[in-house]
Amino acid sequence: MERPRVEVAGVAVSMDHYIGGGRLSSSTTFEDRSPLDWSTVLAEVSAGDASTAAAALSAASAAFEDWAALGPSGRAPYLYRLAELVDERVVELAAVECVDMAMRHESLRNRVISRGARNFRAYAELAEEYEERVWSSNGTINRVQRLPAGPAVVITPWNAPFMLATWKLAPALAAGNPVVLKPAEWSPLSASLLADLVDEAGLPPGVFNLVQGVGADVGPALTTDPRVRRLSFTGSPATARSIGAAAAANIVPFTAELGGKGALLVFADSDLEAAARVAAGQFDDSGQVCLAGTRLLVEASVADDFLARFNYHVDAHVLGDSHDDAVTVTPMIHPDHVARVEGFIERGLLAGDEVLRGGGRHVPDSWAGQPEHALWVEPTLISPASNDSEIVQNEVFGPVLTFQTFIDEDEAVRLANSTDYGLSATLFTGSTNRAERVGGALRAGTIWVNCFLVRDLTAPFGGLGNSGIGREGGDYALDFHSDLKTLQVKNETTA
Question: Which of 34, 221, 240, 400 could form a disulfide with 380 if both were Cys (CB 3.0 to 4.6 A apart)?
Fold first, then answer.
């Protein structure tokens, strides 16, 4: 039974789970607070437990056979309808997510939420367009077929929660797998609105299930259940190791995107203005972006020129309320996360790192009366004491960049590849040959040359090392969510 809905940004939002085609409340709840108003509780959200997880997986298991039997063409209309509904509700979804997570409202309403509709359309089309690989060998005809794998559990992060939920949900559904979604407890509300859209789109009961809750309480029950046939996670390496162990115990394919420590390399032959502008843009959304180029590596001969241009663009940043279109740096998600970021800066200072700019807490005028609830950290640039400094080697996930110089290509590549992460890297150069050489030598899942955050939904996405395992995107995601079968028939066989 569903509890009364809570109005958030003028939108009525359910605070309950969505299981088997209906809402289900829990007797216990957890608080959800807005980074834009931390002094008050935004909502009390149903907190799932092992029994909630079991109910969701039972519903998904019961729905599997019929959903799989529809085939790609039978499932596609549901996904296309979901895409239409996302497009129709962009304003509502953006309003709620802005309050819940504090991402810039302008970004949400103009780009980020609509990406969810693109995800549903893209995977419906890719699944329908799949052509079996067919070839002859050893007197036989071979065909590679995709089979739906079974219930999938997807666990999503607190940043860009709606878009990243659809990014995982769309290929699982298109491949024929019912899904149980567990959103992050720090920003759960847009996932609840997604459940409403699923309901309105008419997906059969159990094909999509939403389990709210604190990760430590409900996560293990979702990931260790032997009925789960696919696990997809975005979050921290520590949590991924636990989920990976559960996946291994049940021999379940597992994909994880675990953040990054991206290098942004700038060579002397670059368009320095473009490079500096992109580098300053890494502070957008308070640096809470896994793909951010947080390690600035600049050729020594142009370091001063680059820094002057970089500081000019950083000076143009506006810190404030996410609803203000002029704002470019938003509050961080949670006081605990602010403390984590500040801890990196404080330990760095003790270890000999030098703060070139920023480094402190920012309190906008409207928060002057309650500075303890102001969740902004100034855009910060640090010159590390060495390449082994913690601030260089570990992911901060906040508005903190490091600045280092290099003499030649070999040193640039060595520095860029010197962390345990490998999600993305960005390279600025005016030389096509250098772009090929250095781009080929950089170890990361995605390399951008003279651009940043340009995404093709059909391209593989994922990282190396501590940045994850497996690939999402395009046919790579559909293959992950499928069991591949080879049908081999002797040429002489007739109907």
Answer: 400
Start-to-end C-alpha separation, the chain: 54
Structure tokens at 344: 């990196």
Q: Which of 166, 68, 176, 64 is nearest to 121 (CA)?
A: 166
Record the tokens describing residue 495, joined without a space: 């109907």
352 — phi, psi (to 5°)?
Answer: 105, 5
Q: Give the pLDDT band of residue 372 (cuts 50, 70, 90).
A: confident
Q: What is the predicted pLDDT for the residue at 148?
A: 98
Cα distances (angstroms) measured from residue 437 to each of 293, 405, 429: 20, 19, 11
Residue 176 near residue 79, CB atoms below 8 Å: no
235 burial via Cβ count (<10 Å: 0-12, 13-18, 19+): buried
Residue 478 in this model has a pLDDT that exceeds 60: yes
Angstrom CA distances, 64 to 29, 83, 133, 399, stand at 30, 22, 25, 43
Contact (Cβ atoms closer than 8 angstroms) between residue 267 and residue 376: no
- Pick from 221, 171, 167, 172: which is nearest to 191 by CA? 167
Strand bridging mode 361-362 / 354-357: unpaired
Two structure tokens written together for 385: 């004491």
Compute the distance between CA of residue 21 and CA of residue 270 in angstroms, rounded to an integer. 54
Query: Which residues have a Cβ under 8 Å from the Cβ of 384 and sit 6 or more positions away?
Result: 348, 353, 391, 392, 402, 404
Give the chain's largest Cα–Cα span: 84
Cα dihedral 63/68/70/74 (nearest 10)? 100
Q: Does the annotation mark 98 as catalytic?
A: no
List domains and CATH numbers for the chain.
Answer: 6-258+467-486 (3.40.605.10), 262-449 (3.40.309.10)
Catalytic residue among 257, 378, 395, 472: 257
Question: Does the annotation mark 257 as catalytic?
Answer: yes
Q: Are 52 and 19 in contact (CB under 8 A)?
A: yes
Catalytic choice (92, 97, 106, 290):
290
E strands, 220-353, in order: 230-234, 254-257, 262-266, 293-299
What's the mean pLDDT when you consider all of the chain?
Answer: 96
Query: Which of 263, 260, 310 shows the shortest CA–CA distance to 289?
Result: 260
Residues linked to residue 376 through DSSP beta bridges, in sequence order? 362
Residue 369 is predicted with a pLDDT of: 75
